[in-house]
Every structure is written in structure tokens, then in C-alpha cells.
What does this fold into?
Amino acid sequence: MAPYRNLEEYNIEITNEVKDHFAKIMDDLGEDVTREGLLKTPERAAKAMLFLTQGYKQDAEEILKGAMFAEKYDDMVIIKDIELYSLCEHHMLPFFGKAHVAYIPNGHIVGLSKIPRVVDVFARRLQVQERLTHDILECINSTLKPKGVAVVIEASHMCMMMRGVQKQNSVTTTSGFRGQFEKIETRNEFLKLISADLS
Ligand SMILES: Nc1nc2c(ncn2[C@@H]2O[C@H](COP(=O)(O)OP(=O)(O)OP(=O)(O)O)[C@@H](O)[C@H]2O)c(=O)[nH]1
Ligand SMILES: [Zn+2]
It folds into this structure.
């Protein structure tokens, strides 16, 4: 299966089922689903939700394996400030922010774009930030088998902003380190580089 699908390829039966559920929810919320402005809303909402959860149908390992190249470079590779949008599994509201990913090659490098693609595969599911962090970390670790891998995610959670505790400025940071990043000097070098403004 191709790792990225167009909306046109969405299963029509599933899209229609999700659409009907959205129409029912809107009706339960007190809306008039027959008014003009809302006629296409259940279908749009269904397609939006299917887009935002397309990661269930994608294979992150396959994405990485598709662009691994033998190379002797064995210093740190960092892709920082990868924007991410996910949905919290408790409220199905967005959380969003940035991921910073690093690895130290062990005979193979990976196509740079594949790292943000892997972030998206795991972000486009119902998630908690901790599991998202580990999903990315473990996938890179087990597929690329690098000497080390590190993932830091900084995110804001809409369920803590629009509702609930209503804190607008809190940012949650999660991190995971494997291999050489478990050594304090390597980890500190990575943390220093992701916080540095090199411009
Ligand atoms: N650890 C973790 N918690 C999350 C994440 N996203 C949302 N949450 C939290 O999940 C918790 C669910 O708690 P509950 O008490 O069951 O739900 P609730 O009554 O809606 O809680 P409040 O948000 O405090 O109103 C809340 O504390 C959320 O802030 C996440 O990615 N990681
Ligand atoms: Zn939540």
C-alpha cells in the first residue's frame, strides 16, 4: 500500500458511515443539520477526521526502509522543529507543536524527509504525547538500527486550553533517548543544538 493516500482513495463506505455519525452528533448537539450552511459539513468533518487519523493505515517502517543508504558518516544527524499535529486520545482534541529528532548512523543514513514522514504517521492517530514520542523513537531505533536515537516533543494541548483547566501557555515536553544518547555528554550536545539559534 502506498504510504500516503489521497482523499479520493478513501473507502467510500467508511467515509459515509463516519459522515452519518457526524450528522447524528450535530443533531444531538442541537444543530439543524438540514440548514444550508451545514449540508456538506458531516462529509467534510468525516474526511477531515479520516485525514487526521490516516496514520493507522500507514507503515512507518516501510517509509524508512524505502530510503536507507549505506554511508560512513557516524556523527549526529538532527532534524529539529518538525511541526506536528495530533489528536489526544482522551478528548479527541488537537495537540500540536514541534518534534526534534536525532540519530547517530551505524553504517546507514536515511533520507531526511522520511523522519518528518514518520512523525506524521504516528501523530495522525489518537495519541498521548508520551506514546507518540516512544513510537517515533522505537521505530527509528528498530528499523535504522543507529548507534543512538533521540526524540523531544514540545506540544500544546487544546483540551487544556479550550476547556478543562484552560491554561493557554503551558507547554508539555516529552523525550526519549536510546543508545549513545543515554550518555549525558551526547544527550547534552543534542539538547544544546536543538535550543541553539544558528541563524
Ligand atoms: N499524560 C497525558 N495526558 C494527556 C494527554 N492529552 C490529554 N491528557 C490528559 O488526560 C487527562 C484525562 O483526565 P480525565 O480526568 O479522565 O478527563 P477530564 O475530566 O476531561 O480532565 P480535565 O482535562 O482535567 O478536565 C487530562 O488530565 C488531560 O490533560 C497526553 O498526551 N498525555
Ligand atoms: Zn485531551
